[in-house]
Amino acid sequence: DTAVSQTPKYLVTQMGNDKSIKCEQNLGHDTMYWYKQDSKKFLKIMFSYNNKELIINETVPNRFSPKSPDKAHLNLHINSLELGDSAVYFCASSLIPSGTGNTIYFGEGSWLTVV
Amino acid sequence: GQNIDQPTEMTATEGAIVQINCTYQTSGFNGLFWYQQHAGEAPTFLSYNVLDGLEEKGRFSSFLSRSKGYSYLLLKELQMKDSASYLCAVSSGGSYIPTFGRGTSLIVHP
Q1: Chain B residues closer than 8 Å to A105 by CB
Q2: Per-residue pLDDT tens for B25-47?
Q3: Degrees (nearest 5) of the Cα angle A2, B106, B23?
Q4: How many CB pairs under 8 A join A and B?
Q5: B56-94 confidence digits (pLDDT tens)
Q6: Dist CA B25 CA B65 (whole Å)
Q7: Phi, psi (deg, nearest 5) at residue A83
Q8: A77-103 residues labelled b (16+ CB within 10 A) or e (exposed)
Q9: Residue B98 and residue B1 in contact, taking contact as beta carbons nearer than 8 Å
């Protein structure tokens, strides 16, 4: 069974569209994340939720809105897509947000291409 | 903020040893992670260092010097499958959520 799963894996869409990426983890973790990896492979934190509550919100355009219906799910909705949004978006989870050895488990990534 | 620096690319020969360095500048250091990422795949956890010294785990070892803001990942008996990007990540402050460096692309050739 996949620990952190996200869908879709590939998404090609036009500028201006609205799209969502879904994520689910079956590890029983309390904390979930969205990371963005750009063309230069730089992996950057976007959001972090702990038990359905937002704890980290980096400098991300407000066109990006995360939603956590329960602690096993963290979806990412993107409005008015722009060319610069093209990237790989990784969902991830960890047992807790604090404490030592906070190992983060990543999903397989969603390749978003905006044309 | 944090500043994490690692070489962009390295090459090595199958069977050899390679050391990938990572330097960082941060306040309130909590710990340092190394992740491996094969092309087109998710990053996977390799190691975590919070105290100075060497942590050995099979063919992979990770070293940390907090006073120097320095870590390295040592890969022994290199195999072709070790060709991947190696990401250094540092957690600091109250969040414990790691910030990733840009990664080092390691190419292992026969």
Answers
A1: 45
A2: 988 888 999 999 999 999 999 99
A3: 95
A4: 61
A5: 999 999 999 999 999 999 999 999 999 999 999 998 877
A6: 12
A7: -55, -40
A8: ebeebeeebbbbbbbbbbeebeeeebe
A9: no
